[in-house]
Specification:
Layout: E1 3-9, H1 15-24, E2 27-35, E3 38-45, E4 51-52, H2 56-59, E5 71-72, E6 77-83, E7 90-95, H3 110-118, E8 126-131, E9 138-142, E10 155-162, H4 167-170, E11 175-177, E12 181-185, H5 192-203, E13 214-216, H6 220-236, E14 242-243, E15 246-249, E16 252-255, E17 261-266, E18 274-280, H7 285-294, E19 304-309, E20 313-317, E21 322-323, E22 325-326, E23 330-333, E24 336-340, H8 342-353, H9 365-387, H10 400-412
Length: 435
C-alpha cells in the first residue's frame, strides 16, 4: 500500500529548539524505535483543545433546536529520525497541521534542491515562483506540456510538482517539492530509514535541472539591518510592502482567504502576549502600520505575531506574512531574507542578450566636432556670466557619447537619461555597487 510522506530536513542545532516548540504546542513524545541506523521518535497531540467553528454564529438559526454548539478537534503529529552513524542527518515527517510550526527550524529549500537532482523537467505539472521585479510578485502556474528551461526573466522557483527521472527509484507518481518533499512511497513506515538514506544519496548527486532560485541570507549583521529597515518602513507606511496572498509551508500552499479571524500582538521568547489588538477577518498593511505607530516602543519586528483562527488556531510571525524587496535584491520569504542565486543571474543575462536590436546610424564625427566647437564657446560665455554674478544654467558636457545621446533624443524622441544616475546595489554577495 502506498503511503504519502511529507519530509523535512533539520539542521542539528535546531533539534532541541524544535522539541521545545513541540512541547509548547502540545506534542508529546510517544514511542522510540531504532530502524536501521536511525533513532525514530514519534510525537502526538494527546490533549487537543476544541476549536470554535467560525460559521456557527452566522448560521445558528438554521440548525435544529437542541443542537449544542459544535466544535472541532484537529490532531497532529511529528516523526523525527536521527541517524546514529551520521548525526547531522535529521529528518522530520509532518502529519496534520505540524507544518505550521516547522518553518523556523527546517533546512530551507531542501525539497527544491532535491528536485534539481531527481526531477524530469519536462514532466513539470505545477510551479510556484517569485519575481525579481515587474508587475508580478508571485505566480502559480500549471502545465500540460512544460518546455525545459522555459523560465521567465527575473523568475525564481520555490515550489514545483514534478515526476522523477528514475521511476524505478522514486515511483511513477508526482512529487511535490519546496522546503519539504511530499512523496508517495510503497515503503512502509518500518522501512522509512531506507527512504531517508536514498534521499541523502540523491542530494549528494549531480543536478539534472538548472533552476533559478533564491539563496538564504546567513550573515546575521545583514539580517539585523534588513529587519530594522523593514520595521521603520512599515511604521512610516512609505514603502512597497504588501502581505502575501498565499504562503507556502513545506509543500502546502495556504491562501489568506482561508483565514477568518486575526489578532496582532507582541511576544518576546515564550513570554506573555502583549499589546493585543483584534484585526477582524482580514489584514492590510495599513493596519499593521497603524499598530506599530501606536505601539512605538516596539523596536524588533521579530516580536510581532499574528494569531489566526479558522478551522484550527495557529500563530505566525508578522515577517512570515510580508512580501517585500529591500536594498534592490534582498527578498523576504516566509520570514527569512533571501537573495537571487547565480543561476538566476545567468537566466537574466541570457534574456537580455536575446533581445533583438537594430543598428542605427553611426556617429557623424564631422558634425560632432562642429557641435563641440560651438558648445565650448557657449561654456566660455556662460562661465564669464557666472563670474560676473549672473545666474546661468549650463553644463560642461562635450564628450561624444553625450552628443550622440542628445541627438537621438532630439531627432527620435527618446528620453535623455545621460548623467542621471541611480545607485544600484550588486546582486552578487560582496559585489560592488554601481551607478
Amino acid at each position: 500500500m502506498s503511503t504519502t510522506y511529507n519530509i523535512y530536513k533539520l539542521p542539528p542545532p535546531n533539534l532541541e529548539p524544535l522539541k521545545e516548540k513541540m512541547d509548547s504546542v502540545g506534542l508529546k513524545e510517544q514511542k522510540t524505535k531504532v530502524v536501521s541506523d536511525y533513532t525514530i521518535t514519534f510525537y502526538f497531540s494527546e490533549n487537543v483543545a476544541e476549536n470554535l467553528i467560525w460559521w456557527w454564529k452566522a448560521y445558528e438559526e438554521y440548525f435544529n433546536d437542541g443542537i449544542a454548539e459544535p466544535k472541532n478537534k484537529f490532531y497532529f503529529a511529528l516523526l523525527i529520525g536521527v541517524s546514529q552513524i551520521k548525526p547531522e542527518n535529521i529528518y522530520v515527517i509532518s502529519l496534520g497541521k505540524s507544518h505550521f510550526y516547522l518553518n523556523k527550524f527546517i533546512l530551507k529549500d531542501f525539497g527544491i534542491n532535491f528536485a534539481t537532482r531527481i526531477g524530469d523537467e519536462k514532466t513539470t505539472l505545477l510551479k510556484k515562483s517569485r519575481y525579481f521585479a515587474g508587475s508580478k510578485r508571485n505566480d502559480i502556474a500549471s502545465y500540460t506540456n512544460f518546455v525545459p528551461n522555459n523560465y521567465e526573466p527575473g523568475e525564481s522557483v520555490d515550489h514545483i510538482k514534478i515526476k522523477a527521472a528514475d521511476e524505478n527509484e522514486w515511483g511513477k507518481k508526482n512529487i511535490i517539492l519546496a522546503d519539504s518533499i511530499q512523496i508517495d512511497s510503497e515503503r512502509r513506515i518500518e522501512d522509512i530509514a531506507e527512504l531517508f538514506d536514498k534521499i541523502e544519496s540523491a542530494l549528494a548527486g549531480e543536478e539534472l535541472i538548472q533552476l533559478p532560485k533564491l539563496e538564504e541570507v546567513k550573515d546575521a549583521s545583514i539580517i539585523k539591518s534588513l529587519d530594522e529597515e523593514l520595521l521603520e518602513l512599515i511604521k512610516n507606511d512609505n514603502a512597497e510592502i504588501v502581505l502575501e496572498e498565499f504562503t507556502s509551508y513545506g509543500t502546502h500552499i495556504n491562501f489568506r482567504s482561508e483565514i477568518y479571524d486575526c489578532t496582532i500582538f507582541t511576544r518576546v521568547g515564550n513570554g506573555p502576549m502583549e499589546n493585543r489588538h483584534d484585526l477582524g477577518g482580514s489584514i492590510a498593511i495599513d493596519q499593521i502600520s497603524e499598530y506599530l505607530t501606536k505601539n512605538s516602543a516596539i523596536d524588533d519586528i521579530n516580536t510581532v505575531k499574528i494569531k489566526f483562527r479558522s478551522e484550527f488556531d495557529f500563530t505566525k510571525d508578522l515577517k512570515e506574512l510580508i512580501d517585500c524587496r529591500l536594498k534592490d535584491h534582498y527578498l523576504l520569504k516566509n520570514g527569512d531574507w533571501y537573495y537571487f542565486n547565480q543561476r538566476f543571474i545567468d537566466y537574466l543575462k541570457y534574456s537580455i542578450e536575446s533581445i533583438e536590436h537594430e543598428q542605427m546610424d553611426d556617429l557623424d564625427e564631422e558634425k560632432y566636432l562642429e557641435w563641440k566647437e560651438e558648445k565650448e564657446k557657449i561654456i566660455v560665455e556662460a562661465e564669464a556670466e557666472a563670474a560676473a554674478g549672473n545666474d546661468v544654467e549650463f553644463d560642461m558636457l562635450t564628450y561624444r557619447e553625450f552628443y550622440f545621446n542628445e541627438m537621438q533624443s532630439l531627432t527620435n524622441g527618446y528620453v535623455l537619461l545621460d548623467r542621471i544616475t541611480v545607485k544600484v546595489e550588486s546582486i552578487l554577495k560582496g559585489g560592488e555597487s554601481t551607478l
